[in-house]
Every structure is written in structure tokens, then in C-alpha cells.
């Protein structure tokens, strides 16, 4: 009984000594590189065997030949670079020029001139699965208003509010990161503030909304430099609500208004949502009967129709008015 107990403790110690920390899955972009963060531990009984001359190797699951060997990093199926040193227990590796044939699961092996020779194959989570994408995905574009994330393609905002657009894209190969650029349907240039981590590139665009941004599309473009540059885009449309602006009234037909003719006063305004119109004459009282709508037509004019006419426009965000002087002249006959 005692010997069995001791054997159990010994086996458990050996299993616990060998550990590896690496992601279960990584995604690579065809034609680019893939970066695998990795560290390992060995059983302490072999610590004196571990020197910087140790081979750090990668094998494809089910294969018996190393696809990458730190002692000859450009001769295997996978070419690239392994970082740090063996004594640092670093197995972080970059594989270059990844293609579809490189899909699959891989495990790490440490091999020295002494007794330390170990493949990190068990349990299965000791392996990393490499997936290969044929083309880069679109960037992720999020809109935040009042610090709340909005998922719609068309985002409704109010003039004067603060809006943040965040564009992000995955960095498949840290040595060849993509770039992010902003554009809009406005003539003015758009520049965002960028942040970069090991795995993600982020660009933030922050601004105060004005009526000029109504129906403006903001586009984020991610450019990936592979054998040739590949770009992917994502866009958001802003719908801006704002109070009436640039309200004006004009007389049609323009020029002298003669008695007996018809005349139309036309009111226009820039607003969102659409405005309601109310017409006034000389005083603050509406016309009787009340006249609404953008056009006020007076048929068979006479001098009593002369005066100043006011158009007041209103939506839920505000009001504005404009006026025009109507002067009806008598038509004299000789």
C-alpha cells in the first residue's frame, strides 16, 4: 500500500512539472504571419539540462517531423522566428507567409543534448489550433452617444451632442499591422486618434454633432498589406435632429405686385424633423383664417393686402421666423 502511494505521488509530480501556456486557437490571415504567445515549464529534475542551445520545435498534430526548429528556423514547413531563449522558457513564435495548408493543430517540443526531451501533447489543450482566413474581415465600427453603444447602421443624434465612433480591426501579424483611416461624405478631412495593442488596432473619432453632419456617412477603412494591399470598409450614417435654420420668405412672382394679380409667398427652412408653418401679418396674431404650410397664396390682390408677412416655423427642437414686405400697387389706366 505504501509503495503504491509513493508511486502515485511521483507520477503526479512529473505530470505537474511539464506545463505550457498558449492560446487554444489563433487566426491567421493568408499571406500574412501568425503570432503565438507561449511559455512553458519543465520538470525540475531536468532543470540542469535546459540551456539556450536547446531546440525549441513545433510539430503538426499527427506528424512526426518538426515543421519548425529553432536551430534552423528557415528550413521547415513553417518559417519564422521564435522569441526569447530556452532558459527563459519562452516558446513565443511567429510563423510567416501562412497559407491554407498550414491549418491544423500544433504542439511544442523542447529537446536538449541531455535527458530533457519532451513533447507538450497532452492534454489536448496543450496544442494550439491555427485557422487561416482567405481574406481579412471588415473592421468593427461602433457608435457611442451619451456613452451608450448604438448598433444600428443609421444612428439618430441631436445637434450639440457628443458622438464617438470607434473602429477596430484585428492585428494578425504584429510585424505587419494594418492601418485604419477615416473618411466622410463631407469635404473636410477626418482624423481619428489611434491605439494599438499586440492583437488589435483601434481608432477613435470624437466630435460634437452639428446640422452639417445630417445624412453624412462616416467610413472606416482597414488596409492589410499582404502580397498586395487589401482594404475592407465599414460605414455608419448619421441622422441629426436640429432646430430650424436659415428660414426665409420670398415673393413669387418677384418684382412689382399689381392689384388684381395673384401672388404666392413661399417660406423655406432647414430643419430635422420637418417644421410646421404658421403665417402672420403685421402683428403677432395669425391670419384669419389660420394659414399653414410653406406657401401662402393671395388671389385677386388689392392694396389692403399690403403689409409685412411673417412665416414662423417650428419643430420639437426650436422655432424661427422670417418676414417679407408685400406692396400691392394700383394699376392705373389712361
TrEMBL record:
<dbReference type="GO" id="GO:0007155">
    <property type="term" value="P:cell adhesion"/>
</dbReference>
<keyword id="KW-1133">Transmembrane helix</keyword>
<keyword id="KW-0812">Transmembrane</keyword>
<dbReference type="GO" id="GO:0033691">
    <property type="term" value="F:sialic acid binding"/>
</dbReference>
<dbReference type="GO" id="GO:0030246">
    <property type="term" value="F:carbohydrate binding"/>
</dbReference>
<feature type="domain" description="Ig-like">
    <location>
        <begin position="139"/>
        <end position="231"/>
    </location>
</feature>
<keyword id="KW-0472">Membrane</keyword>
<keyword id="KW-0130">Cell adhesion</keyword>
<dbReference type="InterPro" id="IPR013151">
    <property type="entry name" value="Immunoglobulin_dom"/>
</dbReference>
<dbReference type="InterPro" id="IPR003599">
    <property type="entry name" value="Ig_sub"/>
</dbReference>
<keyword id="KW-0430">Lectin</keyword>
<dbReference type="InterPro" id="IPR051036">
    <property type="entry name" value="SIGLEC"/>
</dbReference>
<keyword id="KW-0732">Signal</keyword>
<dbReference type="GO" id="GO:0005886">
    <property type="term" value="C:plasma membrane"/>
</dbReference>
<dbReference type="InterPro" id="IPR013783">
    <property type="entry name" value="Ig-like_fold"/>
</dbReference>
<dbReference type="InterPro" id="IPR036179">
    <property type="entry name" value="Ig-like_dom_sf"/>
</dbReference>
<protein>
    <recommendedName>
        <fullName>Ig-like domain-containing protein</fullName>
    </recommendedName>
</protein>
<comment type="similarity">
    <text>Belongs to the immunoglobulin superfamily. SIGLEC (sialic acid binding Ig-like lectin) family.</text>
</comment>
<feature type="signal peptide">
    <location>
        <begin position="1"/>
        <end position="16"/>
    </location>
</feature>
<dbReference type="Pfam" id="PF13895">
    <property type="entry name" value="Ig_2"/>
</dbReference>
<dbReference type="Pfam" id="PF00047">
    <property type="entry name" value="ig"/>
</dbReference>
<dbReference type="InterPro" id="IPR007110">
    <property type="entry name" value="Ig-like_dom"/>
</dbReference>
<feature type="domain" description="Ig-like">
    <location>
        <begin position="244"/>
        <end position="327"/>
    </location>
</feature>
<keyword id="KW-0393">Immunoglobulin domain</keyword>
<dbReference type="InterPro" id="IPR003598">
    <property type="entry name" value="Ig_sub2"/>
</dbReference>
Amino acid at each position: 500500500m505504501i509503495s503504491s502511494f509513493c508511486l502515485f505521488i511521483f507520477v503526479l509530480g512529473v505530470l505537474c512539472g511539464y506545463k505550457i501556456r498558449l492560446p487554444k486557437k489563433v487566426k491567421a490571415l493568408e499571406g500574412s504571419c501568425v503570432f503565438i504567445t507561449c511559455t512553458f515549464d519543465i520538470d525540475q529534475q531536468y532543470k540542469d539540462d535546459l540551456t539556450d542551445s536547446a531546440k525549441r520545435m513545433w510539430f503538426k498534430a499527427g506528424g512526426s517531423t518538426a515543421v519548425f526548429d529553432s536551430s534552423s528556423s528557415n528550413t521547415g514547413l513553417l518559417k519564422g522566428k521564435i522569441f526569447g531563449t530556452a532558459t527563459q522558457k519562452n516558446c513565443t513564435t511567429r510563423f510567416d507567409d501562412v497559407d491554407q495548408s498550414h491549418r491544423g493543430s500544433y504542439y511544442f517540443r523542447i529537446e536538449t543534448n541531455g535527458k530533457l526531451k519532451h513533447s507538450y501533447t497532452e492534454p489536448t489543450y496543450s496544442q494550439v489550433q491555427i485557422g487561416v482566413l482567405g481574406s481579412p474581415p471588415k473592421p468593427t465600427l461602433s457608435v457611442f452617444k451619451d456613452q451608450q453603444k448604438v448598433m444600428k447602421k443609421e444612428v439618430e443624434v441631436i445637434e450639440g451632442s457628443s458622438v464617438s465612433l470607434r473602429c477596430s480591426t484585428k492585428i494578425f501579424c504584429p510585424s505587419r499591422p494594418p492601418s485604419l483611416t477615416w473618411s466622410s461624405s463631407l469635404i473636410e478631412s477626418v482624423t481619428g486618434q489611434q491605439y494599438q495593442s499586440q492583437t488589435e488596432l483601434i481608432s477613435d473619432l470624437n466630435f460634437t454633432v452639428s446640422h452639417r453632419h445630417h445624412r453624412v456617412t462616416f467610413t472606416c477603412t482597414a488596409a492589410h498589406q499582404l502580397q498586395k494591399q487589401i482594404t475592407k470598409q465599414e460605414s455608419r450614417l448619421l441622422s441629426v435632429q436640429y432646430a430650424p435654420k436659415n428660414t426665409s420668405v420670398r415673393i413669387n412672382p418677384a418684382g412689382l405686385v399689381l392689384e388684381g394679380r395673384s401672388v404666392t409667398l413661399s417660406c423655406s427652412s432647414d430643419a430635422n424633423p420637418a417644421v410646421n408653418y404658421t403665417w402672420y401679418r403685421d402683428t403677432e396674431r395669425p391670419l384669419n383664417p389660420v394659414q399653414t404650410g410653406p406657401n401662402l397664396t393671395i388671389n385677386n390682390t388689392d392694396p389692403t393686402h399690403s403689409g409685412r408677412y411673417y412665416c414662423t416655423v417650428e419643430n420639437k427642437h426650436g422655432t424661427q421666423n422670417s418676414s417679407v414686405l408685400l406692396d400691392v400697387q394700383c394699376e392705373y389706366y389712361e
